[in-house]
Specification:
Elements: E1 3-4, H1 7-17, E2 27-36, E3 41-47, E4 58-59, E5 62-64, E6 76-77, H2 81-88, H3 92-110, E7 115-116, H4 129-140, H5 145-152, E8 155-157, E9 162-168, E10 177-185, E11 199-205, H6 207-216, H7 223-232, H8 238-243, E12 250-251, E13 254-258, E14 261-265
Parallel strand pairs: 2-10, 6-8, 9-12
Antiparallel strand pairs: 1-14, 2-3, 2-5, 3-4, 3-11, 7-8, 9-10, 13-14
Helix pairs in contact: 2-3, 6-7
GO molecular function: hydrolase activity, acting on acid anhydrides, in phosphorus-containing anhydrides; metal ion binding
Keywords: Hydrolase, Magnesium, Manganese, Metal-binding
Domain Nudix hydrolase: 25-227
Amino acid sequence: MGFPLPGEVGERAREFLAGRLAPVPARDAATVVLLRDSPLEVYLLRRKATMAFAAGAYVFPGGSVDPRDADHMVAWAGPSPAEWGEVFRADERTARGLVCAAVRETFEESGVLLAGPGRDTVVTDTTGPSWEADRLALIARTLSFAEFLDRRGLVLRSDLLKAWAHWITPVMEPRRFDTRFFVAALPPGQRTRDVGGEASGVAWMRPGDALAAAKAGTARMLPPTFRTLTEMAAFESAGDVLACPRSITTVMPEPAEVDGRMVLMIPETGKAAE
């Protein structure tokens, strides 16, 4: 069994297996599964149909690492970049960039900011014209994340993130990402908002409801999103997710031909740590 690869993507997979297509490099990226309780829900964005990657799909907030995300000037509280590097089997600079990208992209795509005035605090309100101006400047890359935090006297709270998974885009795709998945609970007092941009809509959904929509064909999802929602559906609360021991296994789905059809074979992701 495998995930069907119809049309153009199936043809690219066939070309790759025949040795006529070379893979493009995968760019480092970070994705955050944002959670809230009563009942447990996840925050999902529906990407615009015009997007070059995952057009029309439901996804979690996230995106590529900006080279400036690895800036040592980023104010930091919580597990160090070196500790995150051990978790993701990455060098310290890469780990620093991934964690910063996770926090920055979450703010850009949901308005939620995992940062605070000190190592034991978190901002409670990120609404208003000045916050929106900063968010848009971050998206436009006219403001770096380090500058944004410094301007507001904030420190990144890496302790509010939990490493969850590591997925690499299949080799035949023209746009490829080396993506680390994080989970985080919605901070008290903060709220998400429909910030537009790459998304045509946003929603808080129970994992089971999102999966049912995907199975019914009313919500398109890529395999990493579907698998992650399946894993989230096993929990009752955000606290349960954050407390779950987790080992990170790199997953890169592989194309294969089965009974004359091109499919994507998806190995198991990391389970609870032994």
